[in-house]
Predict the structure.
Amino acid sequence: MKPYREMSREELLNLKAELEEKYQEAKAKNLHLDMSRGKPSAEQLDLSMGMMDVLNSTVDLKDSEGVDCRNYGVLDGVKEAKELLGQMSEVSPDKIIIYGNSSLNVMYDTVARAVTHGIMGHTPWGKLDKVKFLCPVPGYDRHFSITEYFGIEMINVPMTPQGPDMDLVEKLVSSDPAVKGIWCVPKYSNPQGITYSDETVRRFAALRPAAEDFRIFWDNAYCVHHLYEDQQDFLLEILDECEKAGNPDIVYKFCSTSKISFPGSGVACIATSPNNLKDIKKQLMIQTIGHDKVNQLRHVRFFKDIDGIHEHMRRHADIMRPKFEAVLDTLERELGGLGIGSWIRPRGGYFISFDAMEGCAKTIVAKCREAGVVMTAAGATYPYGRDPKDSNIRIAPSFPAKEELAAASDLFVLCVKLASVEKLLDK
Amino acid sequence: MKPYREMSREELLNLKAELEEKYQEAKAKNLHLDMSRGKPSAEQLDLSMGMMDVLNSTVDLKDSEGVDCRNYGVLDGVKEAKELLGQMSEVSPDKIIIYGNSSLNVMYDTVARAVTHGIMGHTPWGKLDKVKFLCPVPGYDRHFSITEYFGIEMINVPMTPQGPDMDLVEKLVSSDPAVKGIWCVPKYSNPQGITYSDETVRRFAALRPAAEDFRIFWDNAYCVHHLYEDQQDFLLEILDECEKAGNPDIVYKFCSTSKISFPGSGVACIATSPNNLKDIKKQLMIQTIGHDKVNQLRHVRFFKDIDGIHEHMRRHADIMRPKFEAVLDTLERELGGLGIGSWIRPRGGYFISFDAMEGCAKTIVAKCREAGVVMTAAGATYPYGRDPKDSNIRIAPSFPAKEELAAASDLFVLCVKLASVEKLLDK
C-alpha cells in the first residue's frame, strides 16, 4: 500500500470506509485489554516465587555481620544488600543506601528533601522563587508528576537516538541557576528504549551547572532489563565518570528490584557520592529507624549475586521478547511504508514508543479505548500531560498475554490508520 | 534507710564513700548492657517466626478481592490488611491507609506534606513565619526530632496521670493560630506508660483550635501492648469522639505492627477522616505506586484477625512482664522511701519513666555509661533534648535478658543513689 499522504481524496475516502467497517467489527469483539502500564505479567512474577521459600521459621535471620534483621536498626541497609544492589548499580557498596519497596518513593523523597532542606547546605528549593527541571521528552509520567507536585517548572528537552539533546542541556544548565535538576532514564529509556551514548554520559558528567545544587536524577530503572542476550546496550557508569570529571556530587542514581522480583515488594536504593550520602542520612535518620531488612535478606538469599540476577533476567527476557516482537511485527507489517507513524525497536526496558502523525495521538488512544483497549493516556509522556505535537503514544506490551497482545496490536494499528486518514481528509 | 534529705552531712559523706566503693566494684564487672531503646528481645521476635512460613511458593498471593499482591497497584493497602489494622486501630477499614514498614515514616511524611503542601487547602506550613507544636513531656524523642527537623517550635506541656495538662492544651490551641499540632502517645505513653483518661480524650475531641489546620498526631503505638491480662488500660477511640464533637478532621491516628511482629519489617497505617484521607491520597499517589502488599498479606495470614493479635500479644506480655517487674522491684526495694526518685508502674508499653532529683539525670546516665550500662540520653524525653529539671530518665527493659536486667537495674539504682548524695552534698 502506498503512503497515505500520496493518496487522492477519493482513495482516502474509500480507505476510510473500509477501515471504519473493520473498526466496527473490532468493537463488536468486546475486548478488555490493557497496554497502559509497565507491569510484569503473572508469568514473570511466577519466576520469583522461589523468593517466598528462602526464608522460613527454621532459617537464621541474621545478616553477614550478625545483625538480627528482624529487629530495629541499620539505617542504610544490611551489608549484603548493599553489595548486591551495588553490583546492580555498578558502584561500590559504600556508595549505596538501601531503601524500601519503591525507587519512585526514593526519588520523591529526594526532591522533597531538596525542597524543605536544600542540598548540602544550599537554600531549600521551597524558599526560592523559581526552580526548574529539565525533562527529556518523551519521558516517564511519574517523574513529571513529582516535579509538578512541588511546583517545579519543567522544560522539555528533546530526546535523540543518543539520549537528550546535550547541546540544549549544557546551555540551559550552565546559564540558568534556577535549573536544579534533570530527569533521566539512561538505559532502555521510558518510553523509547534508548540508551544514552558514552559521549552523552560524559557530557553529563562534565556539566558545569550555574547552580551548585544542580543534580542529575539518574533513574537506572532498566539497568539489567535486556530483551536479547546477544544484543545488549551498554551504559557508561556515571558516578565514575563524574568523579573523573571533578564533579563527584552531581548525580543521584536510583535503582530497584521492582521489575526483577515483585513490583511493590522489592528493594530500592540510591547510589551517590559520600558528600551526598552524608547529606541524605541527616534526613533519613529523622524519617525512619530503618527499612525492611528481612526483605533485603530475602532478596539477597534468593538472587545471591549479580550473576543470579542476570540469570533471572534472562528468564524475564524469554517471556518479554515474544511480546515485544508481536507488537513490533504488527507495527511493521501494518504500518511500514505508510508514513503515518514511526517507532523504535528497543533492546530492553518495558516500552515501545510510537509517534503518530501530528495531532493524532489523542484520537488514536480514544479510539482504542472505545474498542476496549486501554493505552497510556496520550500526552502522558510529556510534562503536564501536554505533548505539543499530540503525537507520542507509549505502548506497554508486558502485561497482556501474547494472544491478547496480537488482538490489541491489531486494534492499535487499525486506530492509527483510521485516525490518520481522518486527519488527512480534515486538512 | 531514711530519706536522703533528712541525713546529716556526715551521714551523707559516709554513705557516699560506701556507694563509691560499690560503684568501683560494679565497674570492675565490665558490663555491656543496653536499656536505651524500646527494642523487643530476640525471644519476642521468635514469637513471630511462623510469619516466615505462611507464604511460600505454593501459596496463592492474591488478596480476597483477587488482586495479585505481587504486582504494582493498590495505593492504600489490600482489603484484609485494612480490616486487620482497622480492628487494631478500632476504626472501620475505610478510614485506613496502609503504609510501609514504619509508622515513624508515616508521621514524618504527614508533617512533611503539611510543610510543603498544607493540610486540606490551607497554607503550607513552610510558607508561614512560625509554626508551633505542643509536646506533652516527657515524650518520645523521635517525635520531637521530626518537628525540630522542620523548624517547628516545640512547646512543652506537662503530663499528668490523666494525660497532658488539658487546661494548658486548650488555652494554647484555642488562642494561637501558629499552634498546628500536638504529639500524643495516648496509651501506655512513651515513656511514662500513662493512658489518657476518657475526659482527656473527650477534651481533645472537643478542642476549638485557632488554626483550622491544627491536627492531633495520635501515635497509638502501644494500642495492644498490655503487660497484664487482667489489668489493662482502656483508651477511648478518638476518631469516634471527634465525630461526635463535630470535629471529624482534627486527628491523625497512627498505628503499626512494629512491636507486634518484626520491628522494621511490619506494616504501618494511618486512620483518619474521609476528608483527611482524600487530602493524603493526593500526595500519596505522587509519592508511590503502593506499599509492600506481599508483606501486608503475610501479616494478615499469620495473625488472621484481632483475636490472633491479642493472643500473640499475650505471649509478648509473658516475656515482658517479668522484665518490667525486675526493674520495678529493684527500684522499689532500693529506692523506696529515700526521696531521691519517683516512677510509675505501667500496665503496658515499653518503658519505665524515672524522675530523679532535679539536676541529677545527666550525671546518673553518665555514671551508668561509665560502668557499661547504656541508658537513653538524659534529656531525650524533652524537645531539643533539654529537660529543664534534668530529672527524667527513660528505662527500656525489653531488650536485655532478665539476668542482665537485674545487673543493669542494680547498677542504675546505685548510680541514682550516688548522684543524689553528691547533689545533696554539693548544695
Observations:
- Chain A touches chain B through 54 residues (CB under 8 Å).
- The CA atoms of residues 67 and 227 of chain A lie 38 Å apart.
- The two ends of chain A are 21 Å apart (CA to CA).
- The first strand of chain A starts at residue 33 and ends at 35.
